[in-house]
Amino acid sequence: MKSILTLVLAMTASTVANAQSGINDTIQARELQEIVIEAPKVIHKPDMDVFFPSKKAVENSRNGVQLLSNLMIPSLSVSDVLGSITSGGMSVQVRINGRQVTVNDIKNLLPSTIKRVEWIENPGLRYNGANTVLNFIVVNPTIGGSLMLSATQAMNTAWGQYNPSAKFNFGRSQLEIGGNYKLTENLKTHRDYTETFTYPDQQSLTRHEISRGGKINSSTGNFGVTYSYTKPDTTVFVIEAHDAFSPKNKDEYNGLMSSSNGDPDVLLTDASGSNGSRPSLSLYWEHHFKGNQLLVMDFKSEFFIGRSFSDYIEQLPDSREYLTDIHTNIKDRNQVYAVEADYIKNWRKSRFTAGASYTANRNRSTYENLGGEVYHQRQDKVYLFAEYFQRLNKFTFTAGIGVQYTDLLFRETDLGSTSWNFRPQASLTYRINGKHQFRLNFQSWQSNPSLAETNPTPQQIDGFQWRIGNPDLKTSNNYSLTLRYNFRMPRVYGQFGIRAFTSPNAITPLLQWEDEKLVKTYENSHGLRNLSFFISPQIEVIPDWLMVSGHLQWRIERMRGTGYSLTNRSWSGNTSVMLNHWGFTLSGQYVRAQRQLRGENISWGEDLNIIDLSYNWKQWGFSAGCIFPFGQYDLGSKSLSKWNTNERHIRTDFQIPYIGLSYNINWGRQKRKAGKIINVSGDADQSKAGGK
């Protein structure tokens, strides 16, 4: 999951469509003379929760992310100013009418065009391992279109976000053009770092780093064009072309390092970053046949053209000579091609889905610091699945099985691995009534080793440490069992739950001494297991005025690998408060990130807090707020290895006040927007150079 820090610094579900699932909306708004009876805010369906935006929520929103924030779905952490959507610290797959998109695409949605939001916490096999899914059901004008412009700018640093978007409709076709640019330049940060090395002979060395300042540059942008054609109940065709680019992405930290062995203090510089471009093209086709049958196909190609780099320098304060001088530069020319085809058959209370997909990654990495040595990696993945859905009175049952074949090979070394992995899935829902429901969900998915984890080319990190990938890594298996109780009472909505997770061969880092080098490599561990308890309430404290929602989770986890067995206990959560009156919206948010154990390392994201005041007038929106108005920012990690214990904190000592301005307009009659039932998965790989 990208960290919120990256989003801050950068300024930063396909569900079952009605035709696919055969389940119509149970309640819709009705108009009787001058009395409007609105649908309930949330409806529990067997495979999802459906949220209907109220008129007031639409009026108080200027884009799709702001509307989602106003819905205050308890288990979601949503930030319009940061452009982030997470659930329980994990990423959320977002979709528009079933078409997988980015958070920026949601930000470019007009609130008045969003019919409902479908929240899926137990996605099926065709979602290919997604944790959770948000699907925005959207309508758009038959003729005419829409225009959205927005900008948010920090008041005390070069940090901001700028979003233009336009849509044009003509008959059965729609053309969308949009993009965004996120600016971050020279954001001041500092790092606190302490580490202890223990050698095989049990002697130890402790090094302590005192920060001398640092800075981050992380500007990114993207631009995209989408054309869609819809012939109702017959054919849907979508073609999309996008390019995401990162012209300047660099973290740099400076420090004064002291050692317990009495060596003189040294000045150090530790810098790493990347830049590049990710152009992509996707094609989607859907056709309806007689007897409620569908055939859908999706194709995607993506390229990564760029580089990653790291620089580590140590020198005495009064000397121009370097004690340690390490530079790593990797130039990538990587590509991915993916295609998926699904067959879907619907009956009145049941559905059968079967599909197949193929993903091919072709990676070419040039190590410029090694005299231009070139390494080629090939990854091929084939995935087959079948799934059946059935409703029986108050019970709903879904079961399916998938199988994945993975083949990984490095051309130059002839090293690699192959594996077969099964992916069973099942869910059972018992609906007591329209307000109370139990859901039991078993989910499995695979995690493929990354390019950085498998590339055997040695990389020096500092004077002691090296990193070498393991090309023999196998694809790891993940299994999750979750029991949820959903309830809805007057002015209160929410859920209780318990989740058990295991990954018996999780891919994790492994530290070991080789001669006088401490080498970080990777292994298929002996297993990661965790157990989580969570509660997610939403409370309407004062109707139409004051809303509070939140999510609280406690987790215990155990990690076993070569030579170690570790246990971690932690709690995490988020809370949001929203006050609406006289057209103003005052909101506050606090997020405590999950302290997560992986291998011999505990890492945590950002403990986030934001306050925001917004006001909408006609087509205009105005906002002002502050990121981190309270407390000190902290992003960090802790190593528990017997060979290297360390603790790292990345901090900023200032708040980020900001102002925002937006303009929205749309025209024409409304129709259902073109949607996608499937989305083939596949992303171009990227190397990672050095860095602690």
Describe the structure.
The protein has 692 residues and is mainly beta. The protein has 6 helices and 43 strands. The strands form 5 sheets. The chain has a 22-stranded antiparallel barrel. Strands 3, 4, 8, 9, 10, 11 and 43 form a 7-stranded mixed β-sheet that branches. A 4-stranded mixed β-sheet has the order 26-27-31-30, with no helix packed on it. A hairpin with a 6-residue loop joins strand 19 (293-315) and strand 20 (322-346). The longest helix has 8 residues, at 64-71. The radius of gyration is 26 Å and the shape is globular. The model is unreliable at 1-39 and 670-674 (pLDDT under 50).
Principal-axis shape: globular
Average pLDDT reading: 85
Structural category is mainly beta
Strand tally, please?
Answer: 43
Strand content: over 45%
The stretches of 5 or more residues where confidence is low (pLDDT under 50) are 1-39, 670-674
Could you give the distance between the termini? 18 Å
Largest sheet: 22 strands, antiparallel, barrel
Quick gist of this model?
This protein is mainly beta.
